[in-house]
């Protein structure tokens, strides 16, 4: 069955390619010119994503993608055009160029940065270029956004997500995030297109992604289009820097927790970047762990090497990405367990521009996750999980003279998992499986109309990871649309069907956990699926004031959920659940030097149904407010104030206590008379609500130069007014455990 | 600038106003629940169970509630091999009076010693008319329990290690214990010296690793470990000839399935850091909470060859 499915998928791919090539020949001969190029930072040659490129005379343009690439098609041939290239924090550049009939005019542009001073912010053509962008659910996060937020010890891209409407966490301790009512294992994290399966350090307190290595971040809260698969909820797409193409450079940063270095520089026809981060002091983490000491020791290292030689293949760029992260909790005592988990990533990517408005990208990557609990002589339960994912991807994009875009691609994912673990009731899961998923996708972006844009596509899993899948040709249609009714107001909407074949065997009741073990969804369950609807409105009142409103409705089915009642090894590890979530998100931005103010509000509901029991998942908070105020004092002094408010998260109330019999060694004691300890009797799941959560954080930063060395000092205070936000009640003592107290932290960054 | 400072100060003031932690009642309406706890033993005719009720302390701290929660006056009946055993209500003085000051209440019978692989059923009719019931099947740890490949004699010239294996009874816990039985001059009572599975070096000192509850149905002890145990047996006593080594006795307690699952649930967490708020609380009591299980203890004898014993100076 699967073999035949694969044959069919290849046939589909071949037919699409033939259509594609015919289209190229036919349309390219129609006789207009194209402007194409890559926008980079003049100081280091890094690609600048999301720049605006505008042809002034025609009032048309494009924005750059993550490669810094822009393509403007169907430009009438003319000897003189003024091209304006702009980007936040960079000096706008105006360039005169000519466009020749049936030719591609290549124009690479290097923009000069002007620091991150807000008074220099200028983006030209925003209103023109983004007019019909089909980007509902998409948030672009700049490194400046991440750096300006108050730091809970370290700047962290995952923690910065939690300020976005629609994104939740369950506490200060965790960087784990929940998007629009879905569980965290439905979020996809991509590093240069490679999946990171466990992107967390230290029990989920921090992400493994060092912000210093990031070039651009795109975050889809839902409604993502058909080129992305195997997740139901969100996609975090992180592209790392290429490395300085002009000169060798480095930086060193130190915080209360880690030390890290970055080294980058040019190589013939390319550049490289190497980063490394290592924890050296974990005392501060006691604040996160309710004053419990843990021998936390983690590291992460990454490198990226790129090569682009027109004499080798014109228009090509090759990237090699490597990434390793590891956490080790090695306890000296033989009676205390050891724990470790790691990620390893390696990928090769070939990006190719052709002599037509066609470009393609081919990548092959390997992602490995390994986690282990070695109980040694302790009573901890053994746990061992490994996942290997080898993925090959091909994406072809063609831009028609009408500005419409056609994209097709295929993804072949070969996954192998092993898992051994023992649950709290002593039942053993010794499972693992392997499989191959072959998916093809195609989508057509209607961008020919000035005020209307649509992205219509579908993804087909021709071969499933699940050998028992009875519907291998599951078609996942996805549509996303934008209609600008007034120059300042755009209406947006999307609809799509999503499927996921990998899951974690994680316990949603665990608010602190080591790692989530990954497996292919067992054969006795169907792949998880969801149907998502979203509508929205983007309003740009002025160049400095905007308001985005989005509403969503999501239905989830076949959600693999841990079987809490697994007592024997033959009981299923997972059972199937359904879910539903809906809500409204509001995002207001005001940016007028020296102030920048962002306010977001989310009104949402999430439900989960397991075996007929309907409950609120632990991350369901109905109301959420995030306020961020930034102020530029000048002279490289910046201050940020954030205030976060969430209505209480669900918790399971107590029906009282009973005295539970405890025993260990039945040789030496006879526990029946007096060995009893209190244990809470729980009420129906998650019917109670914790008190509301709120927290005020402050941050102050200063950059300065001493000789040729640049320093950046950051000081933050978390929970300024020491709000006692409850985290949980201990089950056997009733003790209240609070989240982070008043916590001052500081970092220093030195750039050479 | 002034406006900014006013804004920030106003924001902080409002925040501080709200900063006091909200009061929270973690309790749902109380409804009394009942608990039966009992472990049927194979090594005695005395069988004991307890009955208690749930409680809701005034504050968050359950230890602050010191009212005796034991249930007295219930009818507790046990069936084994179609025979009814009636348990009697009794009490003894409490050893730990830090929380409860009253006697410990329990129910007992003194004439029941079930055989391996047999069913024992319990019914407790509470004074309020509610019935708690449960059943246990004693582990099949009788004759033929130990693996025939186990060493019944240890001769270092023939074996490099002691191996003892036993029947795999499924996903249950075993508690093995290894004792050297010896006599000391002038004392006719036998003494035990517990043998670890191994020794490990901790801060330059050899630390014994005694058997833990395990799901593995065998153990091995290296020659070097046994040597160290034999050396330690006499301690600092230089008169080695005062010690007479009799044999090694291996005891294995096999928990039944109920007790094994219950023991796992006692760990509350799968490791020292994971916090699971709603971890399943295992109980096999119909109509209430608690545990009714059984264990069976089996023993195996290993003889040590005389030259080996004598090599330590022992008789």
Would you give an account of this structure?
- The complex is a heterodimer of chains A (752) and B (315).
- Chain A is mainly β and 752 residues long.
- Helices cover 6% and strands 55% of the residues of chain A.
- Chain A has four helices and 49 strands.
- In chain A, strand 45 (693-706) and strand 46 (709-718) form a beta hairpin.
- Chain A starts with a helix and ends with a strand.
- By secondary structure, chain B is mainly beta.
- Chain B has four helices and 17 strands.
- In chain B, strands 1, 2, 3, 4, 5, 6, 7, 8, 10, 11, 15 and 17 form a twelve-stranded mixed beta sheet that branches. Chain B has a two-stranded antiparallel ribbon with strand order 9-14. In chain B, strands 12-13 form a two-stranded antiparallel sheet.
- In chain B, a hairpin with a 2-residue loop joins strand 12 (198-202) and strand 13.
- The longest helix of chain B has 16 residues, at 2-17.
- The chains are: A mainly beta (752), B mainly beta (315).
- Strand 32 (510-512) of chain A pairs antiparallel with strand 16 (275-276) of chain B, so a sheet runs across the interface.
Which sheet architecture does the biggest sheet of chain A show?
22 strands, antiparallel, barrel
Task: From the alpha carbons, calculate the radius of gyration of chain B and give it in angstroms.
Answer: 27 Å
- Given the helix and strand composition of chain B, which structural class is it? mainly beta
Count of DSSP E strands of chain B? Answer: 17
Shape of chain B: globular
Order of helical and strand elements of chain B = HEEEEEEEEEEEEEEHEHEEH
Task: Estimate the helix proportion of chain A, in percent.
Answer: under 10%
Report how far apart the termini of chain B are. Answer: 94 Å
Indicate the proportion of strand residues of chain A. Answer: over 45%
Give the low-confidence spans of chain A.
Answer: 1-10, 20-29, 116-125
Oligomer: heterodimer
Task: Describe the main β-sheet of chain B briefly.
Answer: 12 strands, mixed
Task: Please state the average pLDDT score of chain A.
Answer: 87
Beta-sheet strand percentage of chain B? 35-45%
Category by helix and strand content of chain A: mainly beta
Point out poorly predicted stretches of chain B. none
Total of DSSP H or I helical runs spanning 4+ residues of chain A: 4
Give the mean pLDDT of chain B: 89
Helix content of chain B: 10-25%
Shape of chain A: globular
Report the C-alpha radius of gyration of chain A, rounded.
26 Å
């Amino acid at each position: 069955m699967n073999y035949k499915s694969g044959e069919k998928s290849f046939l589909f791919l071949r037919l699409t390619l033939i259509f594609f090539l015919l289209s190229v020949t036919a349309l390219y001969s129609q006789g207009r010119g194209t402007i194409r190029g890559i926008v980079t930072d003049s100081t280091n040659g890094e690609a600048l994503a999301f720049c605006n490129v505008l042809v002034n005379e025609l009032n048309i343009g494009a924005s750059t993608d993550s490669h810094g690439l822009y393509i403007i098609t169907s430009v009438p041939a003319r000897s003189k055009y003024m091209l304006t290239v702009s980007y936040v924090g960079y000096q706008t550049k105006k360039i005169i160029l000519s466009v020749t009939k049936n030719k591609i005019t290549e124009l690479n542009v290097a923009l000069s940065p002007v620091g991150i001073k807000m008074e220099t912010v200028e983006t030209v053509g925003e209103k023109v270029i983004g007019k019909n962008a089909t980007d509902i659910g998409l948030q672009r996060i700049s490194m400046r956004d991440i750096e300006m937020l108050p730091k809970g010890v370290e700047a962290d891209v995952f923690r910065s997500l939690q300020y976005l409407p629609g994104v939740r966490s369950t506490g200060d301790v965790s960087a784990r995030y929940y998007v629009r009512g879905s569980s965290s294992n439905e979020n996809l994290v991509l590093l240069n297109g490679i999946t990171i399966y466990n992107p967390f350090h230290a029990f989920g307190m921090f992400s493994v992604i060092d912000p210093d290595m990031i070039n651009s971040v795109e975050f889809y809260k839902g409604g993502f289009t058909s080129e992305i698969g195997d997740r139901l909820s969100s996609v975090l797409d992180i592209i790392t820097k290429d490395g300085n193409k002009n000169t060798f450079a480095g930086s060193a940063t130190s915080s209360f927790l880690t030390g890290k270095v970055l080294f980058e520089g040019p190589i013939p026809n390319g550049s490289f970047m190497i980063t490394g981060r290592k924890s050296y002091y974990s005392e501060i983490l006691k604040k996160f762990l309710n004053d419990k000491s843990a021998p936390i020791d983690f590291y992460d290292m990454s490198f990226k090497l790129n090569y682009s030689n027109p004499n080798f293949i014109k228009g090509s760029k090759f990237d090699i990405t490597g990434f390793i992260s590891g956490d080790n909790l090695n306890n000296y005592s033989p009676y205390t367990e050891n724990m470790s988990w790691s990620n390893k990533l390696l990928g090769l990517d070939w990006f190719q521009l052709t002599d037509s408005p066609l470009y393609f990208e081919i990548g092959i990557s390997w992602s490995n996750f390994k986690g282990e609990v070695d109980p040694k002589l302790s009573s901890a339960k053994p746990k061992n999980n490994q996942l290997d994912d080898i993925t090959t991807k091909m994406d072809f994009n063609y831009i028609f003279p009408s500005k419409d875009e056609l994209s097709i691609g295929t993804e072949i994912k070969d996954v192998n998992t092993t898992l051994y673990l023992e649950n709290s009731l002593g039942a053993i899961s010794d499972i693992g499986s392997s499989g191959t998923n072959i998916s093809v996708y195609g989508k057509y972006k209607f961008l020919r109309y000035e005020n209307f844009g649509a992205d219509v596509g579908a993804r087909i899993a021709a071969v499933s990871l699940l050998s028992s899948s009875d519907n291998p040709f599951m078609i996942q249609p996805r549509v996303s649309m934008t209609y600008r009714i007034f120059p300042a107001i755009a209406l947006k909407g999307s609809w799509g069907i999503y499927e996921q074949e990998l899951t974690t065997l994680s316990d949603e009741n665990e608010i602190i956990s080591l790692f989530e073990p990954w497996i292919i969804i067992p054969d006795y369950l169907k792949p998880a699926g969801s149907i998502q609807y979203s509508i929205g409105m983007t309003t740009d009142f002025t160049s400095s004031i905007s308001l985005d409103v989005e509403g969503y409705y999501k239905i989830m089915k076949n959600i693999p959920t841990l079987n809490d009642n697994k007592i024997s090894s033959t009981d299923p590890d997972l059972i199937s659940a359904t879910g539903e979530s809906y809500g409204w998100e509001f995002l207001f931005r005001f940016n007028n030097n020296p102030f920048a103010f962002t306010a977001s509000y989310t009104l949402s509901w999430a439900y989960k149904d397991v075996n007929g029991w309907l409950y609120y998942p632990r991350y369901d908070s109905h109301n959420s407010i995030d306020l961020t105020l930034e102020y530029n004092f000048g002279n490289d002094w910046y201050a940020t104030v954030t205030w976060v408010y969430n209505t209480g998260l669900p918790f399971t109330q107590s029906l009282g206590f009973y005295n539970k019999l405890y025993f260990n060694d039945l040789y030496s004691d006879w526990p029946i008379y007096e060995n009893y300890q209190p244990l809470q009797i729980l009420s129906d799941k998650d019917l109670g609500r914790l008190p509301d959560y709120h927290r005020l954080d402050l941050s102050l930063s200063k950059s300065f130069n001493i000789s040729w060395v640049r320093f950046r000092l950051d000081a933050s205070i978390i929970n300024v007014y020491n709000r006692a936000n409850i985290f949980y009640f201990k089950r056997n003592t009733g003790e209240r455990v609070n989240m982070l107290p008043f916590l001052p932290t500081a970092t220093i960054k030195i750039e050479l | 600038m002034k406006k900014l400072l006013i804004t920030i100060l106003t924001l902080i003031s409002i925040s501080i106003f709200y900063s006091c932690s909200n009061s929270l009642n973690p309790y749902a309406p109380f409804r009394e629940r009942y608990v039966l706890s009992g472990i049927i033993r194979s090594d005695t005719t005395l069988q004991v169970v307890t009955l208690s009720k749930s409680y809701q302390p005034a504050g968050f701290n359950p230890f602050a509630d010191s009212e005796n929660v034991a249930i007295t006056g219930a009818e507790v009946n046990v069936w084994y091999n179609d025979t009814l055993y009636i348990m009697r209500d009794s009490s003894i003085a409490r050893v730990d009076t830090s929380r409860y000051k009253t006697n410990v209440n329990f129910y007992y019978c003194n004439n029941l010693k079930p055989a391996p692989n047999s069913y024992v059923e319990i019914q407790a009719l509470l004074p309020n008319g509610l019935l708690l019931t449960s059943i246990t099947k004693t582990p099949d740890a009788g004759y033929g329990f130990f693996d025939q490949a186990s060493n019944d004699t240890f001769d270092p010239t023939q074996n490099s290690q002691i191996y003892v294996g036993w029947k795999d009874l499924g996903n249950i816990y075993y508690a093995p214990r290894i004792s050297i039985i010896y006599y000391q001059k002038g004392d006719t009572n036998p003494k035990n010296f517990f043998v670890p599975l191994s020794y490990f070096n901790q801060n330059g000192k050899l630390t014994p690793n005694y058997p833990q509850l395990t799901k593995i149905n065998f153990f091995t002890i290296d020659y070097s470990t046994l040597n160290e145990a034999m050396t330690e047996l006499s301690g600092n006593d230089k008169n080695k000839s005062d010690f007479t080594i009799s044999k090694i006795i291996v005891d294995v307690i096999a928990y039944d399935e109920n007790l094994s699952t219950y023991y796992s649930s006692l760990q509350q967490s799968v490791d020292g850091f994971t916090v699971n708020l709603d971890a399943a609380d295992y109980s096999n009591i119909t109509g209430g909470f608690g545990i009714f299980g059984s264990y069976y203890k089996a023993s195996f004898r290993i003889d040590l060859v005389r030259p080996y014993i004598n090599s330590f100076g022992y008789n």
